[in-house]
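Data availability excerpt. The first of two example chains:
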Amino acid sequence: MLFSRLRLSLLAAIFMALPVHAFANWSVTNLSLLYGDGFKLDDNAQYTITLDHARSWKYGDFFFFIESFNPATGDSNEYGEIHPRFSLSKVTGKDFSNNYIHDMYIATEVELGENHRAYLYGLGFDLKLKGFNYFNVNVYARDNIRQGGKTWQITPYWQLPFSIGSSKWSFEGFADIAGTEDNAKHNIIFQPQLLLDVGDLFGHPGQIKAGVEYSYWSNKFGVKDIDQKVMQVMMKWSF
């Protein structure tokens, strides 16, 4: 079912945590459709619908996404994350920028899946890198409640726009680099995207993008030597 209980609980948590009057500055919502095959420990071929939203607010920024895998099969699987961050500059009134960073954050994350729940907390850094719309890094302590103990995770994410002739492109994505946690081995998720701004070709820049996403996951789900390498075609609509 497309609007599963997971989706509803994620949306409710976001709006309870951040009242409407606290929203400010900027926001973006994306709806993406991806297809690829060669997945491990899942259906070999999958199409994925992803809804994500990012915006700033009075005391920082937040991001969430919800994914549904093969939703039309009647046996779909959903997964979502919420990422609230609290700007140290906005909270304290002090300027934390320097030659290398725009700001520092208290970074938090909640991961929710059918048989998965994890809580992460740490520090975030918005870096100053020439040419990038953004290049941010969060450094977390990670607690998967279905595993014993805790571990660490480093998550960089970025967007680099560039042009080829008159066409506009972007190289964007993220990586999750996590340590060993009880029975789960250290693992790396790396998902870069190469996207053409199709909307710009028709006078509507930034609204429709198309391209590919490469999904690399070493020790998938923390399972030793299960390495996933999948190329997916991708369409993204921005609102």
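And the second chain:
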Amino acid sequence: MSIIDQTRFIERLQFFNGQRLFADDLQGLEAFNREMRWLHNQSLHQPGVGAGFAVNGDKGDREVTIGAGYAIDSLGREIVLTETQTLPIPPVAGDAQGNPIFFDLTVSYPDDSALEEAETRDGVCLPRGVVRLREAPVFCWVELAGDNLIPRKPKLRKDLQDNLKIRLARIEALNCQLNSRVSTDQRLNARPSSNPYIAGGVEKVTELEENPALSNLIRAVEQVQARTITATIDAKVAGFLTTPAYTAHITGPRKFTVTVSGASLPVLVLDLTQIIESAPDHFKIFALVVIVSEDGSELLDGAVDEVEERIKADWRIVWVGVEG
């Protein structure tokens, strides 16, 4: 919930000479300014590490070093560490097979109830009260499980997905020490790159489909057959935040020689590729594939089947996404 959800209208607080102020008046002013700042962060910035929070540790170490830093969570709250801190790694020997266990190091905003009292003062005819709380971020080791290395505990998984916990680094723990150097490739950055972000990949052609409409259109031409390729390309590994401009094409040989009735038949394959659906984590590609007999011979089903198998073995979908 933000100040927009909780408040029917915005009020500008004012004071006058001779006004008697209560703690609630000043607390309300502090809370209002803080939540307006959070609203700014939430609206105009993305959650993640804004500066610092460097995490270091080498193989064999039993603790990691975390540098001073600044981060923002999905509610716009600032997470600040003012000085270098060391944190012991989880005391685990390994999994049941003796393999290292993966952990993500996360940081989150501290609730007031978790903060240390830094200063108290006597009240006027009232007991002492707290006037300052020492703010310190909350660090947490999140154990990962499975081939996809997702958080084992559902609550921690949801906090990471909702960016209430900000991922700083990943480690492998074995025999109560680091099994490899700390990795920061997985950290979430609050500041997008000022340059276009480009990522791409290569996928196999796994299936060709017969298109009845096209087959009917060219049924009188014995030297031509048509097929289509429809594939959904998984782009999650690229980590795009918005839908990029995708481009894709098919690589591989276009000329084949197949055997028909004991004779060699030269075949030419043409394709027309189009992207028909786009999202940050995937896109869908459609390709029209036309198989043509170069010497005018009839294209029998056996010849087309052989061409299809060659295409699935040799063709690749090469794609690139550019996020500006």
